[in-house]
Amino acid sequence: MSRFLLLVKIVTKPPHFNERMSKNKPKYYVVWVGAKPGIYLTWEDCKKQIHGYPQAKYKSFDSRPAAEAAFKGGPPAYSPSNSGLKKASTQKPSGTSTGIIKQSLSVDAACSGNPGDMEYRGVDTASGKEYFRVGPLKDGTNNIGEFLAIVHALAFLKNKNLPNYPIYTDSKTAIGWVQKGKCNTKLEHTGRNDAIFELIQRAEQWLSQNKVTNPIHKWETKYWGEIPADFGRK
C-alpha cells in the first residue's frame, strides 16, 4: 500500500472499470490532443483520453508505422466520426451533464477561513458515494486541500490497480501543483498544522516516486454545477 495512504483510511472500493480487448483486425488509435496524448491499441483506451476533453484530436490507423508517423507529424484539422472525417469540436462544455465522464472519481476541499480548518474528500462522480475523507485539520488552506485530495485520489486508484481511472477537480491551481510535483504554498508552518505539512511532504514524495497515469480533468462548474465532492458550504 502507498505510504501516502498510511495516514488515512480507505472506506470502500471504486466501481470496476471494464477493459475490453478487440478481437477484430487490430487498430492503432492516435491521440494528439487529450488527457494523455499517445498511441492506443483499443478504442476503449483511446476513449478514456478524449471523452469529455475539450477540442480532443484523434484518429485511427490500420498499422503501427502509420500511427507512429501521424503522431510524430502532429494533428490534422479533423477527428473521426461514424460518418467520415469532420472538424474537431471547438464548443465549450455542455450546459448539461452529457460531457461528464460518469465512471470517475471527484475530489474537493473545504476550508473555514484562510488559514482555517481544512478538510478534503473523494467521491464517486455518478453516485456521490464517499471513498475517502480527511480532516478537518487546523490552519490549512483550500488550495492545499485540493492538492492533497488529488494526490490522495491518485494513490487510492494506484492501490486499487486503476491506472487510467479519471479524476475530476475544480481547482486549476491544484492541477498545476500536481503537474509540477510541488505544493507551492506560502502557508506558515506552525505547531497547529504539523499534520498538514506532514501530508504535504508525503504527497510530494509520492509524486516523485510514482508516474501519474490517471487523467486529471478540470470540473467545469459554470456548465455542470458544483462538483459531486463539494461540501455544500457556499
Brief overview, please?
By secondary structure, this protein is an alpha+beta fold.
Molecular structure report:
By secondary structure, this protein is α+β, with helices and mostly antiparallel strands. 28% of the residues lie in helices and 24% in strands. The protein contains six helices and ten strands; from the N terminus they run E-E-H-E-H-E-E-E-E-E-H-E-H-H-E-H. The strands form three sheets. It has a five-stranded mixed β-sheet, with helices on one face. It has a three-stranded antiparallel β-sheet with strand order 2-1-3, sandwiched between helices. Strands 4-5 form a two-stranded antiparallel sheet. Strand 1 (28-33) and strand 2 form a beta hairpin. Helix 3 (142-159) packs across helix 4 (172-180) and helix 3 (142-159) packs across helix 5 (194-209). The radius of gyration is 19 Å and the shape is elongated.
Query: Based on helices, strands and strand pairing, what is the structural class?
Result: alpha+beta
Measured as a percent range, the helix fraction is 25-40%
| Largest beta sheet: strand ordering | 8-7-6-9-10
Low-confidence residue ranges: 9-13, 15-23, 77-92
Radius of gyration, in angstroms, nearest whole number:
19 Å
Question: Secondary-structure blueprint of this entry?
Answer:
Elements: E1 28-33, E2 38-40, H1 43-50, E3 57-61, H2 64-73, E4 79-81, E5 84-86, E6 105-113, E7 116-124, E8 130-140, H3 142-159, E9 167-169, H4 172-180, H5 194-209, E10 216-218, H6 221-224
Helix pairs in contact: 3-4, 3-5
